[in-house]
Fold each of these.
Amino acid sequence: MVQERQTYGLIRRKGAWSWLDVRGRRLGAWAFALNRLTGLGLVLYLVIHLLVLSLLAQGESRWNDFIALAKSPAFLFLDVVLFFGLLFHGLNGIRVALVGMGLGVERHKTLFWVLMAIGAVLLLLSAWKVFSSPAT
Amino acid sequence: MAEQTVQFKVFRYKQGERPSYQTYTVRVDPRTTVLRALEQIRQEQDGTLAFRHSCFHASCGTCGMKVNGREVLACVTNVLELSTSEVIVEPLDNAPLITDLVVDMGDFYARYQPAGMPMIRESEFLPDSQVPEGVEHHMRLENCIECGLCLSACPVAGSDPLYLGPAALAAAWRMVEEPRGRDPATVLAWVDHEHGCWRCHAAFECSEVCPSNVDPAGAIMALRRELTRRKIGQLFGKR
């Protein structure tokens, strides 16, 4: 394994920021950055989801209060954001997995746009379903 | 395009001092490259500005730097084609900084060694080409000019100092692709670890900035494909 030689004091290395710094970058870097962001977002969602479920242990009243909040338009919009994260991360993940196995490498940009087109249709359907479902 | 005045905001760093940016005003014409403009600054305004260059025609790979946030060879980057009134010039990322725009390429070069430095290859001829007698087989230089742009542009190299990097992995794939009597298994074992070809996350930025069409990202994926093929083969008893 190569050990980095540090003869000099300063290395312009951005650390994790280099994942998200897409200034002047192309499609692959944008997809990579968004994949990281949606991945972190989904982990955060999972934690919040578990915390919300813990309200069940605090009685029926607390749970009903939360359900009332969850039916507000702002909360429904967050559901659509969640669907966006799931769809982007999942579909781009399929591209990364295929390309990572050496499949479709030369067509990775086309693959990206095809999967994103599928994602856009699914997102629109999801949004329609979220906002049109009767509040019960 | 007539002659214009352009502001050059240049990264400055001297050992033991804090990094900073210094702005220079330069008159450029339609043929002025970033490298020519930097030479103009050094000759006419500030003799302390340090940068590296050699061939002036994208062959040597020594003038790699970041211009307006993007890795380029300064010798073939036209200033006016950038279409910005201010041109920001910075050294490459992910390499130790020596001074101003000069980085230490020692580690970068060292990472080629295990791949056997595949600097030359057998030349291919077109099927209908008339090859002069005596040159049926000759060698030509590989495309990689070891400029380091790929390592600087790689988002993974930005967070993993031990990552072998796109150029070294591309060199590894060249050796596996054309072993010339060597055992590819040695090189495959060298890249088959968490800081090797599996660290790449397919951002493809290395291939985007490569001035020599080496396509390091494609090479990394080819390494993975080969390793995957061999590992699956091993599952079924193949050696």
Amino acid sequence: MSQNVLPRMEARPASRIGLRQSESILGYLLVAPVVFSILMLIVYPFVFAIYISFTDRVVGSEGNFIGLQNYFNLIQKPDFQASITNSVVMVSGIQIIKLVLGLGLAALLNQAIRFRQFWRGLILIPWAMPAFVAFITWKLLYAPQGGAFNFMLIGLGLVDTHVDFLSTRELAMPSVIVASVWRGFPFWVVSFLAAMQSIPKELYEAAALDGASGWRRFLNVTLPGIRHVVIVVILISTIWTTNSFEAVWLLTGGGPSNATMTFPVLAYYGLQSLRIGEAAAVSVAILPVVAVLAVIAAVRLQKEN
Amino acid sequence: MLDKLTGMQKVTYYSLLTLVAVAIIFPVYFMFIISLKTPRDIYRAPSLLPINATLANYQELLVEDNFLINIRNSLFVAGSSTAVALLFSSMAAYSLVRLRYLYRDWIGRLILFTYLTPSALLFIPLSVIIQRLQLGNTLHGLIFVYLTFAAPLSTWLLIGYFKSIPEELDEQAMVDGATRIQAFYRITLPLAGPGLVAVSVFTFTAAWNELLFALIFITSPNLQTVPVAISRLITGDVFRWGLIMAGAMLAALPVMILYYLAQRFVVQGLAAGAVKG
């Protein structure tokens, strides 16, 4: 018996190694186009951007290596200083409101609500719209002439004269935040709701037996149950909100006088004025923040997939 | 969890939901009625109702303006990016899920990390690279650049879908004499159908909606995509809101219909943290 089995046992590992080898060649071949695209279109440009930011490159000339000069220049520029403060204020404002709205509405839809599918579909509408359409529509809503908000405010007698939401220093930032929240909150509600619905019912029943109130159950069962999803959504959304171009560019263009300037818009203007080195420095300056968020998000997502 | 609601709760909950519904619907409604108005009605006789509704804006946009060309450009760019991304990413995802080789996990990490890399960090170096490749101001260049988000996004999503398909099915097919490649396109790919639909919807809408790259890389009016053409309309001195909103409606309708049709898959994908936002 064993005499019979032995040769087969020896033969199998050999063919398996052959199979392994052809498998890994096939593996590399299949993954190559995506890896090549990523190296060519993301990794190389990424490194290239860092290099450009150390040069005084302009369109039509390679420029010279000038070390950190672009960064020193930037720190002293009012529009760059404004873009940092504005980005912090805008992103934290938008994210905090979306977090509260997202948790609240998801918890609401997680109750015994009729037609839950319908409400969820309705909430998804702003998200399903192209971002540029959403922000152009909000520009119209805010418009002093022909805009809906001014029509209603004046019609109700709340103001005497047209309010210029997007060109008034104090109002521009809140207006951008409101429009961004409108477009972005559905993603949070739907993600949180899906996470809430995957929490085992037994946990709620046990909590109810212990006499926990609705609010207690939310704090002790719901929140811990959706913690992972909440963290991932905050991280990913913060990366994209920080780098969002459309909202500011379409609504205010960064104005009035830098009141809503953010760094993607500033980098865009830099490219428009053909000073590539300086424009690259603007986007590279924000890189450390984005990189830290991306690493944490990547680690969490990898665990999940 | 699903306790019956008390009367008081019912009133509070449904009023809150109605309030949210109004906040969501009103901007869309306003966009629609303005698209049906002449400039005269918009400025001289503002109203929240579609008084004197006319299709003149749509007619002007589609007949007199270049808008049909813009739509064609957008369809070509979004369609091609989706096709290329789907081809590349289904191969890559299959390789990363089913085949074992050195550095596989590192390649997976690279793809995930690049999925999280925002375009705002890339548009400046890309503008230099695209110029150097003589692809500036071409739709092919734009398709190429759109792989920056389409390839990592669709690969990352498909990895999830492929993982949910039992590996034994592939192995069974190979025991029956199929090669690896055959197992891939005869077994895994058909079973991943819903996943491929969702990935196509995401990739197509992401490319259809893209503004920043298109704004930078396309300079000729007859090569402009829909988002660029519409955003160019708001940079003049006088905003022709009726025309702009008609364009916005035409730009939003295809993707909203796609989302509606694919809602089941899209919500799954959203829940997996699939979409940028």
